[in-house]
């Protein structure tokens, strides 16, 4: 997949709950420096928190990359969450509010999708999961 | 582990959350709040989230559960200081927080606790 061109880029390894906080901080720092509104920051960082946690809980660990991206004349932030965990059998079911295999609320994945302008998930059972989210700056 | 101060003033326990808590730290705080209630008793619990920049599904659930458990121990909970961006995000996320009592700041929180418990927390604080 050919995405938007990427300028700043940062990779972090997410293996525990403290790393989830670090992931949140890194996404927020970039959004702050790009001048995103506080509401846009709060939404995106909340989605980052859910997706980073999912890697820790469901896959054991994973990688997050935070990138500043551009399309046409719009600037945006992109976060990619990639893990080598068990993958997801049924994406539609996993996205549904209330579905959880960990006896939790099942809000994370569907919630992250609702909170971001763009959401893409690719998963292969037994291989892992890759979730990409993007938010664009409104002028 | 990240330490969060738990204050007891009069009949009220006040918990000002001053840093971003990761999941285990949030669980640890919940446990410490319940321990404090068990040890000293309180009619009211105020959790101040005024400097908390995000509340995701996990933190939201911890707050809801803490309030439920506190109630079973005879203590009413009010969450104070939730930022408007946090509230809007929680709503969009789909987290149901209707069971939580909330107020704008500690002062309003105490007024609300008085109404909820029929007591006078204000006087006991001053
Ligand atoms: N990275 C992942 N790897 C494997 N499975 C995943 C991953 N992320 C999500 N899932 C699956 O999708 C389901 C739904 O995820 P979601 O984040 O919505 O709920 P949850 O993590 O179970 O609970 P909550 O996030 O509300 O605490 C999970 O229960 C899990 O089965
Ligand atoms: Mg989750």
Molecular structure report:
The complex is a heterodimer of chains A (139) and B (126). By secondary structure, chain A is of the alpha+beta class. Helices cover 38% and strands 33% of the residues of chain A. In chain A, strand 2 and strand 3 (74-83) form a beta hairpin. The longest helix of chain A has 22 residues, at 38-59. The radius of gyration of chain A is 14 Å and the shape is globular. Chain B is an alpha/beta fold. Chain B has one domain: 2-Layer Sandwich (Transcription Regulator spoIIAA), CATH 3.30.750. Chain B is 48% helix and 17% strand. In chain B, helix 1 (23-40) runs parallel beside helix 2. The longest helix of chain B has 18 residues, at 23-40. Chain A binds chain B through residues 17-18, 20-21, 24-25, 28, 38-39, 41-43, 45-46, 49-50, 53, 97, 104-105, 107-108, 110-111, 114-115, and chain B through 20, 22-25, 53-58, 61, 83, 85-86, 88-89, 92-95. Bound molecules: adenosine-5'-triphosphate and magnesium ion. Residues 50, 53-54, 108 of chain A line the site of magnesium ion.
Net shape of chain A: globular
Q: Alpha-carbon distance between the termini of chain B?
A: 33 Å
Which fold name is given in CATH as the topology of chain B? Transcription Regulator spoIIAA
Average of per-residue pLDDT values of chain B: 90
Number of helices of chain A: 4
**CATH superfamily name of chain A?**
Histidine kinase-like ATPase, C-terminal domain
Q: From N to C, what is the helix and strand string of chain B? A: EEHEHEHEHH
Return the CATH architecture of chain B. 2-Layer Sandwich
User: Which structural class do you get from the secondary structure elements of chain A?
Assistant: alpha+beta
Name the CATH superfamily assignment of chain B.
STAS domain
Unreliable runs of chain B, pLDDT <50, ≥5 residues?
A: none
Strand order of the largest sheet of chain A: 1-2-3-5-4
Question: Helicity of chain B, in percent?
Answer: 40-55%
State the shape of chain B: globular
Strand order of the largest sheet of chain B: 1-2-3-4-5
Number of E-type strands of chain B: 5
């Amino acid at each position: 997949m050919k995405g938007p061109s990427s300028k700043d880029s940062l990779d972090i390894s997410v293996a525990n709950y403290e790393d989830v906080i670090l992931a949140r901080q890194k996404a927020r720092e970039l959004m702050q420096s790009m001048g995103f509104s506080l509401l846009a920051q709060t939404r995106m960082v909340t989605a980052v928190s859910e997706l980073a946690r999912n890697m820790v809980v469901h896959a054991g660990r994973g990688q997050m990359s935070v990138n500043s991206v551009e399309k046409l004349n719009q600037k945006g932030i992109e976060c990619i969450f990639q893990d080598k965990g068990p993958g997801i059998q049924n994406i539609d079911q996993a996205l549904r509010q209330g579905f959880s295999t960990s006896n939790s609320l099942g809000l994370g994945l569907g919630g992250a999708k609702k909170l971001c302008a763009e959401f893409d998930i690719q998963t292969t059972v037994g291989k892992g999961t890759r979730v990409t989210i993007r938010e664009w700056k409104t002028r | 582990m990240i330490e969060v101060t738990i204050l007891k003033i009069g009949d009220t326990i006040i918990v000002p959350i001053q840093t971003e808590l990761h999941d285990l730290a949030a669980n640890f705080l919940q446990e410490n709040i319940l321990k404090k209630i068990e040890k000293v008793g309180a009619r009211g619990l105020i959790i101040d989230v005024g400097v908390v920049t995000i509340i995701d599904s996990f933190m939201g659930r911890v707050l809801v559960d803490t309030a439920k458990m506190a109630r079973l121990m005879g203590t009413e909970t009010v969450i104070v200081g939730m930022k408007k961006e946090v509230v809007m995000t929680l709503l969009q996320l789909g987290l149901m927080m209707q069971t939580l009592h909330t107020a704008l700041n500690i002062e309003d929180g105490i007024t609300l606790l008085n109404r909820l418990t029929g007591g006078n927390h204000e006087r006991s604080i001053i």
